[in-house]
């Protein structure tokens, strides 16, 4: 059972206009440059004003230039004329019986305001010691992992850095995480001892983050900036299906925790489950993991392994998994398969998952079994999908001339 709210959209921020670009998602230097370029402030004031804005946007969560009280009124007015601070519109907000929340967010294409909006899902998972936000990087996914619902949706487009951050900002607002904000009334939301509802971010929503590297990098650098949203890089995890050329840059440039969707220990099976394996097979993938910058026992790579009944869940495969990962500081995260309409797989029985976990544990690896969360609202791993579909060229062209 779940509670679905259809929210009053009148409070949602208006969609972006092409002539007023968003300031969300710009680096601090980018903010200063934008202010100067649009003649909002003289060059000498650029850095100072950018720092003020940064604080309003990411520490205080302000969506209205008029609330920026330490910015002179004429400057606020110029800002409002030149830029917007739009966040996504909330289409639906669902709350699972287990407290998991799922939002369907709607974005306009900032470059093409006449294009139909796209929609993505974002999930909040409260636990006793943390609150994790599962963020999407793309609308749909170009990859077609055979057990993943998102993979059945055609990619419409990459999300911009501002749209990736927009999910975090909107979730923080709904969860009362900004100063002066109010928490939802369902209680038990803030993990024990924490002052914030969102303590962790996982790039495990819709899409392959390393196929949208530049925007994901920009968004995560902003989310982790100590003088802004300040989410520790140790509490941000990026999950990839194995886009090998971007693994090293992820560690060097973004410096977040890495998770790999492994799911199989042989190339022939991984070619079917995670077809990107045909391009970058296991040997290359594991080599890239061994060389992940900053890898140590204190900073392990998480290997995700979906438990598919009779497909990849034998004792022999558990032993092979241990052998494959030898020498890599690793955690193994066993994920019971989450079914979706039309999926062709079954979830391994819990006795099988326990036996598999046991073999992996005895070899010295922590191998928590991920408890499915929010299944009743279709918010669990691999269940996310939105209705946004790729338009035919004819339809796109028709819309562009509107
Ligand atoms: N595209 C990225 C991140 C998003 S998916 C990636 O593939 O890593 C987050 C995790 O959920 C991945 O490990 C993915 O393989 C897994 N997953 C996908 N579909 C699933 C399903 N139906 N049941 C359980 N896990 C699933
Ligand atoms: Fe895309 Fe990840 Fe799903 Fe594969 S598992 S289709 S990479 S979202």
TrEMBL record:
GO cellular component terms, A-Z: cytoplasm
InterPro entries in the cross-refs: Aldolase_TIM (IPR013785), Methyltransferase_A (IPR040072), RlmN_N (IPR048641), RNA_MTrfase_RlmN (IPR027492), rRNA_lsu_MTrfase_RlmN/Cfr (IPR004383), rSAM (IPR007197), rSAM_sf (IPR058240)
Cofactor binding notes: Binds 1 [4Fe-4S] cluster. The cluster is coordinated with 3 cysteines and an exchangeable S-adenosyl-L-methionine.
Major location (coarse): cytoplasm
Start and end residues of each Radical SAM core domain: 127-378
Enzyme Commission number(s) of this protein: 2.1.1.192
GO biological process: rRNA base methylation; tRNA methylation
Keyword vocabulary terms for this entry: 4Fe-4S, Cytoplasm, Disulfide bond, Iron, Iron-sulfur, Metal-binding, Methyltransferase, rRNA processing, S-adenosyl-L-methionine, Transferase, tRNA processing
Residues reported in the UniProt entry to bind S-adenosyl-L-methionine: 207-208, 239, 261-263, 338
Cofactor(s) required for function per UniProt: [4Fe-4S] cluster
Substrates-to-products reaction catalysed: adenosine(2503) in 23S rRNA + 2 reduced [2Fe-2S]-[ferredoxin] + 2 S-adenosyl-L-methionine = 2-methyladenosine(2503) in 23S rRNA + 5'-deoxyadenosine + L-methionine + 2 oxidized [2Fe-2S]-[ferredoxin] + S-adenosyl-L-homocysteine; adenosine(37) in tRNA + 2 reduced [2Fe-2S]-[ferredoxin] + 2 S-adenosyl-L-methionine = 2-methyladenosine(37) in tRNA + 5'-deoxyadenosine + L-methionine + 2 oxidized [2Fe-2S]-[ferredoxin] + S-adenosyl-L-homocysteine
Localization annotation: Cytoplasm
Residues involved in [4Fe-4S] cluster binding: 141, 145, 148
Gene Ontology MF term list: 4 iron, 4 sulfur cluster binding; metal ion binding; rRNA (adenine(2503)-C2-)-methyltransferase activity; rRNA binding; tRNA (adenine(37)-C2)-methyltransferase activity; tRNA binding
Superkingdom of origin: Bacteria
Active site: 121 (proton acceptor), 381 (s-methylcysteine intermediate)
Family: Belongs to the radical SAM superfamily. RlmN family.
Function as written in the Swiss-Prot or TrEMBL entry: Specifically methylates position 2 of adenine 2503 in 23S rRNA and position 2 of adenine 37 in tRNAs. m2A2503 modification seems to play a crucial role in the proofreading step occurring at the peptidyl transferase center and thus would serve to optimize ribosomal fidelity.
Something else known: Reaction proceeds by a ping-pong mechanism involving intermediate methylation of a conserved cysteine residue.
Full protein name: Dual-specificity RNA methyltransferase RlmN
Organism name: Devosia elaeis
Organism lineage: Bacteria, Pseudomonadati, Pseudomonadota, Alphaproteobacteria, Hyphomicrobiales
